[in-house]
């Protein structure tokens, strides 16, 4: 997921995406705790995607203020 793709979405879509990513992150944390996580890089990718979405949301809020 690239920031340019995220900038084309509106705030509602970004909030929905953020919720989905946080649920995915929670599931990965549970898998990691249980020892069933196969690819630990997924955790890093999800964490960085969350940061990208939050950054774009903050930029949108700055424009509207």
UniProtKB/TrEMBL annotation:
Coiled coil: none
GO MF entries: structural constituent of ribosome
Keywords on record: Ribonucleoprotein, Ribosomal protein
This protein's GO CC annotations: cytosolic large ribosomal subunit
Annotated GO biological process: translation
Domain of life: Bacteria
Pfam family, one: Ribosomal_L29
Keyword Cell membrane on entry: no
Record carries keyword Protease: no
Cross-referenced Gene3D superfamilies: 1.10.287.310
HAMAP family assigned to the protein according to its UniProt record, in alphabetical order: Ribosomal_uL29
Protein family according to the UniProt entry: Belongs to the universal ribosomal protein uL29 family.
Identification of the protein by name: Large ribosomal subunit protein uL29
Native organism taxonomy: Bacteria, Pseudomonadati, Pseudomonadota, Gammaproteobacteria, Chromatiales
């Amino acid at each position: 997921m690239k920031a340019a793709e995220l900038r084309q979405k509106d705030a509602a879509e970004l909030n929905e995406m953020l919720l989905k990513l946080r649920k995915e992150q929670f599931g990965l944390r549970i898998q990691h705790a249980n020892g069933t996580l196969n690819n630990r890089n997924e955790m890093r990718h999800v964490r960085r995607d969350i940061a990208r979405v939050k950054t774009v949301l903050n930029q949108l809020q700055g424009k509207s203020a």
